[in-house]
Amino acid sequence: MTETPQVLLAHYLKTLKLPTFLKEYSKIAKQCAIEKTDYESFLLRLSEQELIDRQRRTVERKIKQARFPTIKSLDSFNFTSIPSLNKARVIELARCEFIDRKENVIALGNSGTGKTHIATGLGMAACQKGLSVLFTTAASLSNELMEAKDERRLIRLQRQLARNKLLIIDELGFVPLSKTGAELLFEVFSQRYEQGSVILTSNLPFDEWTEVFRSERLTGALLDRITHHVHILEMNGESYRLKQSKKKKGGK
């Protein structure tokens, strides 16, 4: 062998896809030499560091793939501002066992009460556990489905959506859906029934969802599926953004 051991080792570690081994082995080797640690302990330290970094990279990749509009955790949510919200239930949901059980979460309440924050926080918790998550709005997903149908790639898109363990659909009710868009969105919910979890946020109570889907039959069928295995979060209260605006004006 004409190459030095360091060059060969770097080549082998890259081939084996062990970047943390490559980055840390020299430093950890020196530490172990000073501490007179045996070879097994040296290897254990390197393996632990590789695993920690690999898990971190996985979480970062899951968060990026989820396409959250902003990164928000449940730790930063002010539960005292929404007395109607059951904090204990939200904390329980953050364990993500509802995803294993393929159950749904629906956050209902008027605008500005933090529904998107809660949905994002639960999605982030799922990413931390290495689960695949996708965040979108009802209007965006409806438009994407209609475009896919026109371009003859609807089945492919539906399969992509189905691969996510958790699908977060924000702002149902903010924008009325077209007849085709409503039917395609219903199909997504129908395909995920008892197959994958959905977090849905809406500013409308259930009895007003007909305004969005423009059909009592379609709305009834949707509610029948999505509320079969569901956790409902009541989030009515004064808009957080409105309160912040009032504070700013009061301070001027």
Overall 3D geometry?
Answer: elongated
Structural class: alpha/beta
Termini gap = 76 Å
Largest sheet: 5 strands, parallel
Number of helical elements: 12
Rg, Å, rounded: 24 Å
Order of strands across the main sheet: 2-3-4-1-5
Low-confidence stretches: none
Characterize the structure shown.
The protein is of the alpha/beta class and 252 residues long. Helices cover 57% and strands 11% of the residues. It is built from 12 helices and 5 strands. The chain has helices at 5-15, 19-35, 39-66, 87-93, 97-100, 115-128, 138-150, 154-162, 179-192, 210-213, 216-226, 240-251, and strands at 104-108, 133-137, 166-172, 197-202, 230-234. It has a 5-stranded parallel sheet with strand order 2-3-4-1-5. Helix 7 packs antiparallel against helix 8 and helix 9 packs parallel to helix 11 (216-226). The longest helix has 28 residues, at 39-66. The chain is elongated and about 75 Å long.
Entry summary:
By secondary structure, this protein is an alpha/beta fold. The protein is built from twelve helices and five strands.
Labels describing this entry:
252 residues, alpha/beta, five-stranded parallel beta sheet, elongated
